[in-house]
Predict the structure.
Amino acid sequence: MAKKKKAPELTFQQHIEDYLVREHKYDVLEQSEITDTNHSIAEDHLWAFLNATQADTIKKLIANYSTDAREEVFKALRKELEHTPLWMLLRQGLKVRGLEFRLFYPKPRSAASAAAEKYDQNRITFRPHFYFGDTNLEIDFVFFLNGLPIVDLELKHEANQNVHDAVAQFGARDHSKKIFQHPFLYLAADTADVMAATDPRRQENFRWHNTGLTNTPQNPNEYPVEFLYREVLSKEQLLEALSFFLVRVPEREAEDDKSQRPAFTLFPRYHQARLVRKVAEDIAAHFAATGEIGKKYLADHSAGSGKTLSICWLADRLHSLFKPGTNEKLVDITFILTDRKSLDNNIREDIENFTHLKDVVGIARKSEYLPRFLKERTPIIVTTQQKFAWVLDELKSNPALKNLRVAFLIDEAHRSQEGQMGAAIRLPFRKPDEPDSEAPELDPEEEIAKVIREHDGNQLFVAFTATPAPATVNLFGAAFDTYTEAEAIAEGYIVDVAASIISYKTLYNLHCHFVPPRTRRKRSIQRG
C-alpha cells in the first residue's frame, strides 16, 4: 500500500522543525513539560537555569524558605506578570523575597568576559503543535527561553493558504489566553513571506518582515523564507531582541490634539535591525583592525522606511558598544543631526519613547543647550544640521574634546520646497539689475558633504537619505544598506503615485465629464 503523502503545510512545518534541531541545536519541548498551563511556563526548565547560574542566591532562598523556595520563585513570577510584560521581566530580572534573580543572561561584551559562561547557559527550546486551553486548538510553534514563552509562530503553505491567513488566525484567537500575551513576538509566515507583530490582537498590528521585495534562500534546497528560521529564530538574534531591540512605549494621556494611547512594544522591521546590526559589526571590526572609528556609511532608505526610529535604534546601539575586552565606550558621543521641524517633532517624540535612554540624551532645543551638552559629555546629543560645522570646529579646536571618538547620524537634508518653489516661480520675472537673493540655495546635502570634507577626522558618519545628491554619493560611496521605494510601496508604507495616473483614453472611454467629446477640438494632455 502506498504511503499517504503529507499535506504541504505539515511538510513545511516538519522541515523547519528538523532545521531548528539540526542547525540551532534546539531541543523539542514536550507538552507535558509545560506544567504551568495557565502561563505556559515549563517550570522545571526555569528552575534548572536558576540553579545552574545563580546557585548562591538559590541557597539563600532555601535557607529562609526550605522546600517552599521554589514555589516562592514562581509565585513572585506570576504576581509580576499581572502588570509587567514578560520580556521586561526577562530584561530587568525578578525580585523574590528581597533577592534578585536573572531570568536570562544577555550576550557579554567580549568572549573573555566572566558572563560568557552564563550566556551559554541560556536554553532555547520549542514546542511544535503547541496545544492551549481546554480544546484541541494549537499554535504551530512556540519558542521558549529557559522555560518561558517568547515567540509564537503560525505557518501556512502557499499551496492552499498564505501569510494573510496566518495573520487572520492570530486575530481570531482567544486573546485572554496568556500564550497570546506573554511572548514578545508573533510571527505569521508562508513559504514566501513573513509578517510580525508584538501584539496579535488586531490584524493591523502585523507588519511585513521580509529581506526585500522577494525573499531568496541562501541554500537552493531551502524555502524562500529560510532567513526566518536561519536568522530571526536563531539564539543570537532572539537574545539580541530581548536585550536591545525591544522598546516599551509608555501609556499617554489625552493632551491637546493628542488622543489617549495605551502602552505598547516596538520591534524593528527587518531592514531596520539589519542596518543597525551591519553598522555596529562593521565599525567594531574596523576599530579592532585600525584603532579608529573614522568611516562613512550611506543608508539609502526610502520614505516609509521608519527612518527616524532606525536613527534612534542606531544611536542606542552605538552608545552600547565597547572597546573589545574592556569597559570603555567605543563611541564617546553620538550626534543626531536633523532639520528644525524634525527636532521639534519626529526625532524628539521617537527618542523620548526610548525611555531607557532618558538620562543619556540631550535635545538641543535652544542654542545655549549645545555647548552645555558638549561640556558635560552627554552621550547622545540631538541638534540641527545648521550646527554641524560649529560642532566639528569645536571638536577640532577644543583640547578637551579633540581626542573624543564621535559619531554623527545625519537625517535626510530636507529641502524647503516652499522656499525653492517660490524662488523658481519668481526668478523669470526678476528685473535684470535685481539682486539674486531669492535664488535656490545650495543643496543641503552638498553643504553637509562640503563640511565633512573640510573636517574629515577620526569620526563616524552615517547619512540617511532616500535621494542622495551626487556630492553625498561621491563622499560616502555606494549605499551600505538599502530599503527601496518599491519595497515601501509593496509593503503599503507609501502610495504608488504612478499607479494612480489614469490615461486620457481611459477617461474618455469611461465618459468622464472632464474629457471633451470627440467632436470638440483635441487638447494636449500634459502628464506630470
